[in-house]
Amino acid sequence: MSVVGSGQVRGLPDVLRVTFGVEQVAADVAAAVDAVGRLSDAVVAVLRGQGVGEGQLETSGVSVFQEYREPGTDTAYRASHTIQVETKDLTGFGALLNAAVGAVGNSLALHGLQFDIEDKSAMLVQARELAFRHATAKAEQLAGLAGYSLGSVTAIAESQRGFPMQAEAVSALGKGAYDSSLNITPGEHTVEVSLEVLFAWA
Q1: Segment holding 178, helix H or strand E
Q2: What is the residue-wise DSSP string for 55-101?
Q3: Percentage, residues of the chain above pLDDT 90
Q4: Pairing between strand 189-201 and 150-163?
Q5: Alpha carbon distance 115, 159 (integer Å)
Q6: Running DSSP on this structure, what letter comes out for residue 27?
């Protein structure tokens, strides 16, 4: 008999990941790339000034493409650089945002933020235990309904999911489009494990 059990464990996040974007439009590729490079350097510099370390910053995307425009208008190219910041300071989002906006103004986009738990190993252990108990209870009930006795476990297959807390993306941030006292709420992070357990008959 094959049954599926699931277990969920909730925990408080200890990591905040923020994704910033810098975009510029110019008449040629070189100018667009050069502008984005200078603006990106400015954003990285102010983030470092906020205490963000070397290993907490990474480029998560770079693109350059020709913008679609109506026939007869000048050709333009858009370059973008996406930077992800990881911090353990869950209350420091406002300061990071203020610093980045102050550095590049309307060229900044906020693509999103995500709370997470860095080490989920203990949560996964607990979720597996809950999932196995759930599967066993279901199997015992089904076996009883069918008039059989439950035997030993012959196979187990696992799948797991994490549900990090996320916020939606915001773009085109102007210098007046943010609140220096902006507060965000981490909420809880959920880890779910599903176990497909195969039992033999006794």
Answers
A1: none
A2: GGEEEEEEEEEEPP--TTSPP-EEEEEEEEEEES-TT-HHHHHHHHH
A3: 66
A4: antiparallel
A5: 22
A6: S
Contact call for residues 78 and 67 (beta carbons, < 8 A): yes
Report all structural domains of the chain as residue ranges with CATH numbers, in order of start: 13-118 (3.30.70.2970)
Torsion of CA 143, 197, 2, 192, to 10 degrees: 110
pTM to 2 decimal places:
0.71
What lies within 8 Å, CB to CB, of 2 at 6+ separation is 196, 197, 198, 199
Tokens of 64: 């350059």
Joined tokens for residue 130:
């809950």
User: What tokens appear for 105 in the block?
Assistant: 């103004």
Q: Give the pLDDT of the chain (202 residues) as one tens digit per residue.
A: 999 999 999 998 999 999 999 999 999 999 999 999 999 999 999 999 999 988 899 999 999 999 887 887 888 999 999 999 999 888 888 889 999 999 999 999 999 888 899 999 999 999 999 999 999 999 999 999 999 999 999 999 998 776 655 444 343 344 444 444 566 777 788 899 999 999 999 8
Tell me the CA distances in angstroms from 81 to 20, 24, 87, 192, 197, one per residue in order.
8, 9, 20, 34, 46
